[in-house]
Design a protein that fits this description.
273 residues; Rossmann fold; seven-stranded mixed β-sheet
């Protein structure tokens, strides 16, 4: 079964969509079957992979509304192991339409269940708001990865998001875990960045990812060309950092799977007795 990772932070401009695009692309480049779901009405993750606005194309809106099956919404990308469920501007109205629907918090979770056998990772790009689209994404997810800048004010927003994760865990998705917090647009030459990173390490402990994403011109340019950084400039620091982050995520996932498997075998054996 594929692992579902929501990329979330209600604060805008922290590199959330950049992380969604480039993490998904780097996972795919490691020959891991990956799906990126764009749940943000701005559709930046879609355009960042070369999918411009197209009102006739099926999107995550139809998926949430239940008017199209997941298999019909999939789009192939320039990377063989990466597929995309694009967004559309219709998602703007989804927050209102979802209010009256049955299982409104579980619409995305139910819709992608059939896809989890086909992908090792499913990455969801959430809107920069704690709305019904983000709630659907977090209820569908196994874990949440939080991109944040090394700034003092950034910690307040992340603390609020972690409180939301805890409430979702209590009410809708008890299995939801924090995948990690990843520092983005990081400039290791400044004392401020180093100081904040040190504080975050003491605050988050092992939940702070080892990989830091640097402030990088190539990383910023890539979306305007409809490409992830590893296709736009594979030797750039930005591309290399996301490849490193993908390796970190894969390693963590597979280590956990190896630990769970023997426990499940012991449990199954005891039940058969």
């Amino acid at each position: 079964m594929g692992k579902v990772i929501a990329i979330a932070n209600q604060k805008g401009g922290v590199g959330k969509t950049t992380t969604a695009i480039n993490l998904a692309a780097s996972l795919a480049a490691a020959e891991v079957p990956t799906l990126l779901i764009d749940c943000d009405p701005q559709s930046n993750a879609s355009s960042g992979l070369g999918f411009g606005k197209d009102p006739n194309r099926l999107s995550s809106y139809e998926l949430l509304m239940g008017t199209a099956p997941a298999s019909d919404v999939l789009q192939h990308t320039a990377l063989e192991e990466l597929q995309l469920i694009p967004a559309s501007k219709n998602l703007i109205g989804a927050n209102i339409e979802l209010v009256m629907m049955e299982r409104r918090e579980y619409r995305l979770r139910d819709a992608i269940q059939v896809l989890k056998e086909n992908f090792e990772f499913i990455v969801i790009d959430c809107p920069p708001a704690l709305d019904l689209l983000t709630l659907n994404s977090l209820v569908a997810a196994d874990s949440v990865l939080v991109p944040m800048q090394a700034e003092y004010f950034a910690l307040e927003g992340v603390s609020e998001l972690l409180d939301t994760v805890e409430r979702i865990r209590e009410s809708y998705n008890p299995e939801l875990a924090v995948e990690g917090v990843v520092l983005t647009m990081f400039d290791d030459r400044t004392n401020l960045a180093q100081s904040v990173a040190s504080e975050l390490k003491s605050y988050f402990g092992e939940r702070l990812c080892d990989t830091q994403i640097p402030r990088n011109v190539r990383l910023a340019e890539a979306p305007s060309h409809g490409k992830p950084a590893l296709l736009y400039d594979p030797k750039s620091r930005g591309a290399e950092s996301y490849i490193k982050l993908a390796k970190e995520v894969i390693q963590k996932h597979r280590n956990k799977a190896q630990h769970v498997a023997p426990e499940q075998m012991v449990q199954a054996h005891s039940e058969s007795d």
